[in-house]
Amino acid sequence: MSGAEALGGRNCADGSAVAHEARRWLGTPYVHQAARRGLGADCLGLVRGVWSAVVGPWPERVPPYTADWSEASGEEVLWRAARRHLLPARGAVPQAGDVLLFRMRRGAVAKHLGIVVSGAEAIRFVHAYSGHGVVESSLSPAWQARVVARFCFPGGAGSGSAMRAKAPGGEFASRRKGATEASRPVGHPRLGARVGNLATIGKRGARWQP
């Protein structure tokens, strides 16, 4: 099932609106698990905040999570949640409004998110970075090499404003102590993706096929 089918055939939300909202968060201090513009946010909190402004209420309860996410178990919890609620990104290269998922080091789980605010040849993205807060950065070769998936926020099937009803259970919710993951782990793609290769990201839930 494709991401579009999973979300009722919706298209991506307006990228300029997503980028505009993401830039409103610039300067917000970095606070783990927070999602309050101007007060504090981490990378997931930034995405949640932009979602709330552009799409609507966040579709799942997010339980407490540690800074290392699920590195000890190797479970791709954040990736699975992104596949559940976001759509595969459009086009061959990142464009405004896209959500990037990063693997910060080889062999670790993907646990960092950013929102593209300008595309074409000068790709820039906004993200909440420990020790820096919410900042805007260039998608430099070093950052490009860490990208493992590319998504977009869902828009409504017609107006672009409606979103699907809350799922009864999700990947975030499954992280409760003793819970079982709903699906098998996503494999670890190798690092080293270049911007020109990002067209392949988004197939089968935005998984990179080298």
TrEMBL record:
Gene3D superfamilies: endopeptidase domain like (from Nostoc punctiforme). It comes from the Bacteria. One of its GO terms (biological process) is proteolysis. InterPro entries: NLP_P60_dom, Papain-like_cys_pep_sf, Phage_pept_NlpC/P60. SUPFAM superfamilies: Cysteine proteinases. Keywords: Hydrolase, Protease, Thiol protease. One of its GO terms (molecular function) is cysteine-type peptidase activity. NCBIfam families: phage_NlpC_fam. This is Uncharacterized protein. The lineage of its organism: Bacteria, Pseudomonadati, Pseudomonadota, Alphaproteobacteria, Rhodobacterales.
